[in-house]
Specification:
The protein has 237 residues and is of the alpha/beta class. Helices cover 39% and strands 16% of the residues. The structure holds S-adenosylmethionine.
Length: 237
Amino acid sequence: MHRPAASSPVELPDSPDRVRRLAKSLSRLYPGRFLRSYVYWKIRTDPLYPAVTRSLADAQNQPLVDLGCGAGLFPFYLKSQHYLGPIHGLDIDDQKIIAARTIATHHWPDIDFQTSDFATWNPAPHQGHVTLLDVLQYLPPELQHDLLSRAATCITAPNHRLIIRNGLSDPSWRARITHSTDHFARWIRWMPNSPLSHPTRESLEAPLRAAGLHLIFTPLWGKTPFNNYLITAHRPN
Ligand SMILES: C[S@@+](CC[C@H](N)C(=O)[O-])C[C@H]1O[C@@H](n2cnc3c(N)ncnc32)[C@H](O)[C@@H]1O
């Protein structure tokens, strides 16, 4: 895997051919056909990682904590796009963290992965970006609120971003499909838990506004039927 030069800017794969090549190279990092195929199609079809990377482009040297990093795909994607800051990933699933650590050891030793439950995550050592990608629905509403309040304390400078991608609960047909698909992910044992509660727009806004952050909600549907939004929060000057 290509290692970044110190001054390289974030560059997004912009042509279908480059996206295909990136999907291939990232999928090859993972063991087993199932994971490889998941990674390949995630990179080919999901607009999530390019969208988040674009949101970070103005401050790509800041530390980033990826909460619920799974097997580390987003941190690896970011580093493959020449992100310069240190990245710390944490997840409750020990097997995914072991897989992520094994890859990081060989390719990006500056990414640090740790098995950890959000319930006990201490935000105090981290000041910088925070990402929470497709995670909140696995937490009970009280923990969602509390985690968002803690994550907001990491956003200490105007160029820091708290970025959430989540399916939102609302009356739309997209919300119903999102909910069923998350249950399917549990049924095939991809996820250790069933989704507990999809957040609403209001439940995301409450703790982040109370912490003084400004929020932007953008639909991130791509070609999917899911009710996904990208929520970017920052601290105004
Ligand atoms: C759908 S996956 C998203 C993975 C990754 N963010 C991505 O976009 O590829 C949700 C992740 O949240 C993690 N998770 C769920 N509950 C958690 C908790 N209480 N503490 C830490 N991680 C948790 C799961 O183990 C899983 O890896």
